[in-house]
Amino acid sequence: MGIENQERYVRRFATFLLVLEPIYLAGFWVAGYRTLCGVLVWTMLGYGSVVALTWTRWARSARWLLLVVMNYGLLAFAAAAGPYSGIDFLFFTFTIVPFLVFEERQRRAQIFWAIASLGLFVLTPFSRTHIFGLPNLSFEQQNAIRPALVVGSGIVQLFLVALILRQTSERRRHLESLISKLVDREAKLVRSSRLSALGEIAVGISHELKNPLSSLLLRSRLARKQLEASDLAPVKESIERIENDGNRMGRIIDGMSKAGRSSEKDPFVPVKLERVFYETQELCHARLSSTHVRMTFTSDSDLEIECREAEIVQILVNLINNAFDAVQPLDEKWIHVEGRRKGNDIFISVTDSGSGIPDSVVKKMMEPFFTTKEGEHGTGIGLSISRSIAEEHGGSVFVDASAPNTRIVLRLPAKS
Fold first, then answer.
1. Which of 154, 205, 230, 400 is deepest in the core (most CB within 10 A)?
2. Gap between the Cα atoms of 119 and 115, Å rounded
3. Domain 264-413 classification at class level
4. 343: how many CB neighbours lie within 10 A of its CB?
């Protein structure tokens, strides 16, 4: 909760004391306790200054002024009233105030001022004669004002508890709001990473769609000419090829749609690893084939994971896109994706023809917005998002430094 909200509670408490003290001032004046009235007038001026200070740019200092006025005034009042007047109730009540005026992260300040209030209570007998030089009230006079101070202490306690409960409720709502915003931002980052990965393969996919579309148009023209010539056998063959090309285009578009849509609310379902590899290959094939990068997929049979399929595909597309960029300067260009089961985990490794990743990069590569790509080619969020998704699935993403080539591994729990 911000400083502005915190000082609002300082102002409320000081205002409450400004309303309460004139009532006691009137009662003590009628009873003839002029010394107590003088102390109350002094503290009222102090609380008025606190309220005024909360409206200025020095509002943060108001809490310190409140505690000084409160404790010094209480010490003076205790010296004038005496130890049997019920002043001890007020001392213990005011030990709660630091927990209202300071934030939770300022725990040391809270404890310091609470102990200070208790310490001043110990100094009460010494303060009467050595600090303020105030005359003593008789035992009968102290007993006479004791009920009023006990009731006043109870009222202050109830008000403090009400303020602290309200403050706690506001802090909880504020924290819930921050968590909600963080969740929304993380979802936007995931989507941004996904769209970025799709953007990198979009050029290749447009080429991949153009080829079957050209074939489809050519076959349809041939089929029309063959129908005009009443030659039906070649027509059947042309229609089958048109159907195959249409299905191929449909698979590419479906893959793009699955990868691009929001999936954070999808349930975890059992998925065959072969299916995940197939969806990933459909998305990446166009980009890699147009640049002569050889990509292969292998895995143990019947591997199954419980996951959000689109998110695991997103991780693999991110890793393959990174591998694709890394192998461009090399003479030998290949990427191998492999799935193996070890114990209760499935390890999906993405290995490329590179010679490894420097240790200085490995230490930072999972951090958000860290990238080694030049210009606008890298956003720096792909690996960070991939790690977050893997952790949500109970897994992890890490670099296998023992491999002779560059290898990044996605670990996921196997479906039990």
1. 205
2. 6
3. alpha beta
4. 7
